[in-house]
Amino acid sequence: MSAEKMHDIIQPAQSNDGSIDVGKVDLENDGEVFKRGEGIEDFRTVGWIHTTVILLKLIFATGVLTIPSAMYTLGALPGAINVLGWQFLNTYCALVQGQFRHNHPGCHSIADMGNLVGGKIVKEITGILFLVAFVIVAASGMVGVSTALNALSNHSLCTNYFSIIAALMVGLAASARKFEKIAWITWAGFASVFIAVFIVVVSVTTLDRPAAAPQEGPYDFGYHVIAHPTFAAGITAASTIFCSGAGTSAFLPVMSEMKNPRDFKKAVRWCMGFVTAAYLSFSIVVYWYCGKWVASPSLGSAGPVVKKAAYGVGIIGLCVSGALYVHVSAKYIFVRVLRNSRHLQANTIVHWGVWLGTIAAITIVSFLIASGVPIFNYLLSLAGSVAFAPLALGLPGWLWIYDHSDYWKGTWWQKIQYMLHVVLILISVFLTVGGTYGVIVQILDAYKDGSIESAFSCADNSNSS
């Protein structure tokens, strides 16, 4: 990268008189979205270690709770291959997005990148997909919190009342304006989920039989090295595993608030390396000892006593996950609305009104989705197929091609790289179409067989697999 381009990355845009121009937007050549200077609020306050923990919390909580049941659908070997394959692609695509932002530092979100490579129509489509994805996963976070409250209280209230409590908890935690403030609670959130999952993983190894299986007489354990699911079930399980690490488009707003955005690559590698190792080891152990009797979310797999202990420890992490998803959704709207205004970094009534209003709106919509489709796996599969596939795979492939358009006429190795990124786009198209079909079929079947009661019912459906 040229010295001139590197200067653009770390310097704020300035007007002719040398003062900071908070309204200038140049995706190609401008400096960071959040400026630094006297009289404005500094948002660029997150170090790379805090960034790593935030990225971990964005990725880790939901995936580790759903992959064991997806492994039952696919079988242990295909499940493990899916974990390794999807996490490799998700890691690579996260690095592509980070490098693209280095090259074009005016991009705050994935929608800005879509605007740069495809114009306003692509920008709007990308922005909508981003909001859809993270509203859905925020809903899944609320399902996790309401499930925890149900487990801890012995279902003393209607599930929908617990969902309302969960929504209030998530919305309140999400309301901090800066990732720096959320970073401190993500430490506790990540630790709580990791410990909760570890409790379950250790506990299932001590049981003679899975907790949900018949405790006497013969029974079908349901462990398969290679399973033979229907297309709808298989693509839904694969989409669930993919979605467990596909929230990489949420990394970009965090990168915009880093003290030094050039440390982003280091944070991504630490995050995704840990996530991949944890997903693979935890899910294989839980599936090995539980078979088809694994719960979804998986914290319920070791019986009611361990379930209460795990949810008691993990509820903080589940709440923080939902809060992060609400926060990144609201931050996209917040920056989009105020980017051309001094209110973006000024403590004005407009600034706070827009911020708190977007937090409230995203929280309400997420609550409605959580109550309407309360099965954890299906929420994540829906997010993975409809939104994350184009955001986390297709668009990064396009971004790479945009910055390497000359490779098509380069050396044979450059041509191979170019074609591999075209294949990446085609994979995203297949996962979007096939995954959406599969999850819709699965949701309809769940309503037919009673796995899901009517929307907004009091039944606790969150443990269905």
Automatic annotation (TrEMBL):
**Which InterPro entries does the entry mention?**
AA_transpt_TM
| Subcellular location field | Membrane
UniProtKB keywords: Membrane, Transmembrane, Transmembrane helix
The record's section on Gene3D superfamilies has:
Amino acid/polyamine transporter I
GO cellular component annotations of the record: membrane
Q: Where is the Amino acid transporter transmembrane domain?
A: 45-440
Bilayer topology reads: Multi-pass membrane protein
Q: Which organism is it from?
A: Melanomma pulvis-pyrius CBS 109.77
Q: Name one Pfam family in it.
A: Aa_trans
Indicate yes or no for the key word Membrane: yes
User: Known PANTHER family for this protein?
Assistant: AMINO ACID PERMEASE, PUTATIVE-RELATED (PTHR22950:SF694), AMINO ACID TRANSPORTER (PTHR22950)
Question: Where mainly located?
Answer: membrane
Transmembrane feature ranges: 128-149, 161-177, 184-206, 226-255, 267-289, 309-328, 349-369, 375-401, 422-444
Of which family is this protein a member? Belongs to the amino acid/polyamine transporter 2 family.
The identity of this protein, by name, is Amino acid transporter transmembrane domain-containing protein
Gene Ontology molecular-function annotations: L-amino acid transmembrane transporter activity
